[in-house]
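User: Last request for today: this protein with flavin-adenine dinucleotide, please.
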Amino acid sequence: MYDIAIVGAGIIGTFIARELSRYKLRIILLEKDNDVANGTTKANSAIVHAGYDAKAGSNKAKFNVLGNAMFDKVCEELDVPFKRIGSLVVAFNREDMKTIQDLYENGRKIGVPNMEIIDEKKVKMMEPYLNDQIVGALYAPTAGIVGPFELAIALAENAIDNGVELLLNNEVKKIEKNKEGYKIYTKDNEINTKYVINCAGLYADHIDRMVSEHSFKIIPRRGQYYLLDKSVGNIVNKVVFQCPTKLGKGVLITPTVDGNILIGPDAENLEDKEATETTKDALNFIKKMVMKSCKKVPLNKNITTFAGLRAEPSTGDFIIEESKEAKGFINVAGIKSPGLSSSPAIAKYVVALVKNTIGQLQEKESFNPRRKKRIRFASLSDEEKSEIIQKDPRYGRIICRCETITEGEIVDAIHRNAGARTVNGVKRRVRPGAGRCQGGFCGPRVMEILARELGEDIKEIVKEGTHSYILTGCTKKEEEEK
Ligand SMILES: Cc1cc2nc3c(=O)[nH]c(=O)nc-3n(C[C@H](O)[C@H](O)[C@H](O)COP(=O)(O)OP(=O)(O)OC[C@H]3O[C@@H](n4cnc5c(N)ncnc54)[C@H](O)[C@@H]3O)c2cc1C
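Assistant: Here's the final one, the structure of the complex with flavin-adenine dinucleotide:
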């Protein structure tokens, strides 16, 4: 019998798992996909928002400001890059300046520190490549950038290091309430648990409906992006937003924590919770919008496009509470933007909810908040590189030339807790395939390493989802046999 079963291993489920692993509890983290962070957490703007735009008094406002302040510590503990680069909301006319003034006042009410309304000269000094039509901006120095899937993977690893069990490829199909708590059914397993925490993202309404008659609804709201090559350099140094609309924060241009430039998203309500394809119309719209901020943006240096789905709740705000119809069942649902920014504070709050339900929790003396540091070969000095290669020659073999990723780093990513099992899983952990060639050269070599390290037939190695096979057979051998 588990004390707690967490459904969904996105940034929210993994953060809660890691926070709860501080206590003497038996915890299982259930995920339908073949890796953690495969849902909304893998495709978003990756901004740790300062938090001035959510309505004062809402959960979004409360958790964003609290969560933002927690990022330095948790990212340092888990060896995840985080940069507090600040953000600008730019204004093109008087009406926009009024919106910026409203955002500033709202931010002050909520407790966002050190914001400033700046004039066009200061904007130009901060961001020389932005358009001359900009008349001013709201500057929020506490905004930051982080790798959302890298953080979720690190949280899952640290949670497992501290005793949490992770069960991948286990889609929750049914939940029954019983005297002891709940019985969860997946295709291959039946899991008994005293408490359930629902962090199923876009599917959190389906999971809640397994135990409640009157549930909320989650509407998928798609946002699409361009990702530009690192060679573009610092065309912007901060996150540059335009004024928000009813549907979201508007089109932004930002550096990523890995040194690329990200442009997007739009916002489109859909029915399909799996519709992550990109479309010509949306990408053209984003192109037109970003040109308003920065005409010089070199879209010919685009290396990929992608889309993510926001989990828009019918209630309009994050739903973080024990279900009214099922005791011991906590919903953490409708975690749309700024869900990533809020995630550390949401996790702390959920621990408090668990304490309210279970009673005082006993801390584990053995809890280790730190994750084993990973070797980032490309960022080492020549002396450090040769020292590492002497100890382990696999760090001397470059597999991905675009990002300078070694065999040693890939092998390490496979063998850690919550290790990589797929080509994209390796990419999200250590970045082979994230550069200019998008895996065109290193992809087959990554497959060979995965097959060798996992002791699997190379034909069984998938790109991403369970059935996304890359190889179908061996043509030369078949010809020889004829
Ligand atoms: C376009 C876009 C831009 C965004 N930009 C930002 C931003 O800049 N800053 C910010 O703070 N936030 C941003 N967000 C929001 C942020 O990405 C989300 O709040 C966050 O990723 C939500 O995490 P999650 O864990 O709730 O959901 P997910 O990452 O979707 O995780 C849910 C998990 O549950 C699993 N699951 C579902 N059903 C089942 C089942 N039946 N059984 C088992 N497992 C199941 C899924 O496979 C998935 O892994 C953005 C979102 C989008 C889409």
